[in-house]
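Example 3.2
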Amino acid sequence: MASGSSFQVEDLTCPVCIDIYKDPVLLSCGHSFCKTCLQEYWEQRESQECPVCRRKSSNDLGHPSFALKSLCEAFPQSQLVSQLASERRSEVLCSLHGEKLKLFCQEDKQPICVVCWASKKHKNHDCIPVDEAAQDQKEEVKTVLKLLKEKMEVFNKVKKTCDQTAEHIKTQAQHTERLIKEEFEKLHQFLREEEEARIAALREEEEQKSQMTKKKIKELIRKILSLSNTIRATEEELRAEDLSFLQNYKATIERAQVTLPDPQLVSGALVDVAKHLGNLPFRVWEKMQRIVKYTPVILDPNTAYPRYILFDDLTSVRNSEEPQQLPDNPERFDYWPYVFSSEGFISGTHSWDVEVGDSIHWSVGVITEFVKRKGEMISGKRWRVFYNKGKYRAYSPSEPDIILTLRQKLKRIRVQLDWNRGELSFSDPDNNTHLHTFTHTFTDKLFPFLMNVSDIHPLKILPVKVSIQM
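Structure, written as tokens:
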């Protein structure tokens, strides 16, 4: 009794019926079962294998385990029943049969009891002990959990990029607003100065013509006064006695015969209103050409390589030692040091000049719209002229490496695209020298692009002369 009390109830419980052993038998693998439970299991399976470890048994119904039977009989039955009932209350039992869930059906993916396993529903299913199944299923769940964590990392990475994008949008908007105000302030200043100049011209003309008119009035007043004196004297002579009148007649008639010409109004005395107001907005706009520049290609900062620094007018770019704090948006190149133009061409003729200066490594040309911008591989087609290690080369999908021979170093390069005719030409505008021409039947939208590895000398797209033709 005392020795038996050191055992736990589970040591005296059959793995099949989950009850105290009845006529226990021992298989060669070391597992014990009720003789009846093992017999029913083998009859249903039609094979002699251990219900726990699945090992084949060569012995019919195993060897009787008298020691285990003695332990079961020696253990106080009331204690056995009490502990077994307590364990069953604390365990999750089968909802159909009230038995302990000891097996796991691998086809239905659910724990079952021995009665379920013996039923028609699970009779031909592959069932294994719960502890074995738990290990296998845990490994499967761990694999799924790993995938979930990897997916979580992806979402967190994208969220981080979105957070950076949100902050960058604010920075972009504030910076752009400041530049817009600065540009409009230049225009406002020009308009204010132009307004002041035109009002000053109007006032100068007003003063000039007012002085001229005042001088004319002053002269007329002087002559009117002279005529008035002559008229008054003549009237006095007419009122004199006849003899006195006749004595002064000769002098009177000479005085009365005035030789002054009739006064004439001066032509152009009024303010030339038409000169000051005629086509005023147009004339101001025409004059604005000296402060307004037009650049045929504008760079798109949202496509720029993270190490690139774009100038405020979006026409110049240089490299930097440290990458900028920019979001990794889909349009941006993350491996190749490229920057696209803001607009592409799908027809027509276009021309732009690029100042390359003393940059040690640069590339100028056009590239198709749909290009892989992340990673080392570029999927889009490129047509370009580039300079590196003291040599000039031309590159295209059909002509990957053409060495160009130049008499002198380029300071500027002109790009001329005739999309409809399928021609892309490069030349030196300083000495009007042709460099190379690509011919290709273009079908995609083409974007001008720049590449500049120099962190000192920027590449700059030059403005063109603007003329107004009537």
